[in-house]
Amino acid sequence: QPGVAMQEDMWDADWDSHQSLFRAWTGIKEGSGHRLSAVFEVNTDLQKNIVSKITAELSWPSVLSSPRHLKFPLTNTNCSSEEEITLENPADVPVYVQFVPLALYSNPSVFVDKLVSRFNLSKVAKIDLRTLEFQVYRNSEK
């Protein structure tokens, strides 16, 4: 058990927040509220009654450039593995991303079970729920 842990109810708060937002999104999508259409007419000096139809579709936001599973190779003791993740901000406002080791949650196995269920993942038995070791490096490329 790690010496540093988040408050007991923190994973509940994270999960409840996600579920609430996802339920709202699902309701919008089921009611086709994520698709917007408009028809407009343009009149110019050169041509009259130009009718155009535009359509836009909203999608569940994601900062991952493409969905994929991260797989780390077997790594010798006292060595490390690296995996590159590209995050892109699709919004015109700042987005804050927080990486939290599962070991900081008070009950990490329950949280993993919820993630597996929500994202229809096959349960991965090799997740180390005790490690606090990972580092994030900033990519200086634009």
UniProtKB/TrEMBL annotation:
GO terms for cellular component: membrane. Coiled coil: none annotated. It comes from the Eukaryota. Residues 70-141 form the TMEM131L fourth Ig-like domain. This is Transmembrane protein 131. The gene is TMEM131.
